[in-house]
Amino acid sequence: MLDINKIRADFPILSQQIYCKPLIYFDNGATSQKPKVVIDAITKYYEQLNANIHRGVHKLSQDATDAYEISRGKVQNHINAKFPYEVIFTSGTTHSINAVANGFASILKTGDEVLVSALEHHSNIVPWQMLCEKTGAVLKVIPMNEAGELILSEYDNLLSNKTKIVTVNHISNALGTINPIEYMIKKAHEVGAAILIDGAQATPHLKPDVQALDCDFYVFSGHKICGPTGVGILYGKEEWLRKLPPYQGGGEMIATVSFEKTTYADLPHKFEAGTPNIEGGIVLGTAIDYMNEIGFDNIASYEQELLEYGTKKLLEIEGLKIYGTAKEKASVISFNIDDIHPYDIGTIIDKLGIAVRTGHHCAQPIMDFFCIPGTIRASFAFYNTKEEIDIFVEAVKKAKMMLT
Ligand code: PMP
C-alpha cells in the first residue's frame, strides 16, 4: 500500500496553486514531476561535483566520472542489462531512436523492410522514414484495431526475410495500450530481424528486464521517470552496438585521431560523443532509486486503480468517448465529448487548475485512424489521487456545459 500523502509531500510542485486552485497534474505522459531528492541532487551536483568527466586527472573530474559511471550501473541493474557498456547515455528517447536508425543506414539495402506499428509517437516514425529515404528500404506499418490494439495476425503476415528491423512502443502515449512485446520480439527474431522497443511510456509504470525480453534495443527518457530533462537511455545488445557505426563524431568517442584515419573508442563511449549531460546522467540514478523505493509493483497496481476509477467516472458523462480500450492498458485516458474540440475543454479546465494534454500527442496517424483532430489526454502517476479525479470529472462536466 502506498502512503499517497507522504509521496505527495516529496513533490514540491504539487502544493502549487494555479489560477488560485490547487494544481491537479494529469499530464504525466508528457513529463513527470520531480521529487525533492531529485531536485536536491541537481543542486548538489552543481554545488559539489561539477567538472567534465572521463578526461580529467584532477579529483573533482574523477569524482564526477565515478558518480556518472555509478549511475550507469544503476540503470544497468534497473533494466537488467548484461553489461554496463550496453547502457548508452543519450539526451532522451528521440536521440536514442535516431542513433539506432542512423546506424541501420549502414546495414539496409534497397528493398529491405522496416516495420513500425500504427501506434507510434512521431519520434518512432520519422527517423525510420528518413532511414528508408536514405537507403531505399520500405517502411511497412503494423495495423491496429478500433480498440487500439495491434493486429498480431497482420504483424505475422508482414514479417519476412526482408524485414531487417521492427520498432514498436512498449506502451502507447496516445492511447495507453500495453503492446505484446514479448510475442513481437520472438516473432521478429524468427525472421532474423532486430527489434527496438520504445519504452518512453512504459518505464514510468514498470521495470523492464531487457535480458528476459531479449529485445535488441530498449530506449527511454529520464524526464518521464522523475528525472531531469535532456537525459535518456539507449540500451543495445553488445553485438548490435559493436556492429552499428557511431551516430555522432567528436570528442570522447574516439580511440585515436589523425587526418588520415580515426579509430573509435570502445563501448559505451563510441556512442557518447562530446560532453554529455553529466548532471542529468548522475541524477537519473537518483530518480531510479526513488522510484524503486516506492516500488514498481506498488506503482502499477495503484495506477491501475486510478485508471479504473477514472474510466468509470468519465464514462458517466453523456457523449464522452474513450479512445483506446485495449485489454492491457496503462493509466492513460484519451477522450472526446461529442464533437467539442479537445482544445476547448483543455483550456477551460486549465483555468480550474487542471493540467491535461490536448491535441494529437505527437501521434497524428492514430488521430487520422479515428478521424479526429485530437483528444483530451489525462495520464495518471503514482502521486495522483481519486479525489483529484473527482475534481477533474466535475471540471470536464462544467466545460461540457459551457460548450454546448
Ligand atoms: N516515444 C513515446 C511513446 C513518447 O511518449 C515520447 C514522449 N512523449 C517519446 C517517444 C519522445 O520522448 P522524448 O521527447 O523524451 O525524446
TrEMBL record:
UniProt KW keywords: Pyridoxal phosphate, Transferase
EC numbers: 2.8.1.7
Chemical reaction(s) catalysed: (sulfur carrier)-H + L-cysteine = (sulfur carrier)-SH + L-alanine
Protein's UniProt keywords contain Transferase: yes
One Pfam family it belongs to: Aminotran_5
Described function: Catalyzes the removal of elemental sulfur and selenium atoms from L-cysteine, L-cystine, L-selenocysteine, and L-selenocystine to produce L-alanine.
Protein name: Cysteine desulfurase
Chain ranges of the Aminotransferase class V domain: 24-392
Signal peptide: none
Cofactor field: pyridoxal 5'-phosphate
Family: Belongs to the class-V pyridoxal-phosphate-dependent aminotransferase family. Csd subfamily.
